[in-house]
Amino acid sequence: MAAPEASVWRKASRSNNSGDNCVELASMPAAVAVRDSKNPDGPRVLLRRDGFGRLVRVIKDARVGGA
């Protein structure tokens, strides 16, 4: 698997121009890497694709439910 450092990072489409509270994602064959756009050299979270999909569903469900 390629290292996240070698991947192309994309900022979330809902990010604003001030850069506050933004995440960046890097897609790899078996995983998705996540990092804070304000700290690109900082820690990264590496999630298997199925785990990333579950995380996205939980976040969407929480927003719909008003949490």
Structure description:
This protein is α+β, with helices and mostly antiparallel strands and 67 residues long. It has one domain (4-64). The protein is 24% helix and 28% strand. It is built from 1 helix and 4 strands. The protein has one helix at 49-64; strands at 9-11, 23-27, 31-36, 44-48. It has a 4-stranded antiparallel β-sheet. The longest helix has 16 residues, at 49-64. It is flat. The chain starts with 8 loop residues before the first strand and ends with a helix. The mean pLDDT is 84.
Task: Compose a concise summary of this entry.
With 67 residues, the protein is an alpha+beta fold. It has one helix spanning 49-64, and strands at 9-11, 23-27, 31-36, 44-48.
Core attributes:
67 residues; 28% strand; flat; single chain; alpha+beta; four-stranded antiparallel beta sheet; 1 helix
Count the helices. How many? 1
Oligomeric state of shown chains: single chain
Q: State the shape.
A: flat
Estimate nothing, just give the exact number of structural domains.
1
Helix percent band: 10-25%
Estimate the strand proportion: 25-35%
Radius of gyration: 13 Å
Largest sheet: 4 strands, antiparallel
Mean pLDDT: 84
Q: N-to-C SSE series?
A: EEEEH
- How many strand segments? 4
The strand line-up of the biggest sheet is 1-2-3-4
- Flag low-confidence runs: none
Could you tell me how far the N terminus lies from the C terminus, measured between alpha carbons in angstroms?
36 Å
Protein name: DUF397 domain-containing protein
Pfam family, one: DUF397
Organism: Actinomadura yumaensis
Region (Disordered): 1-21
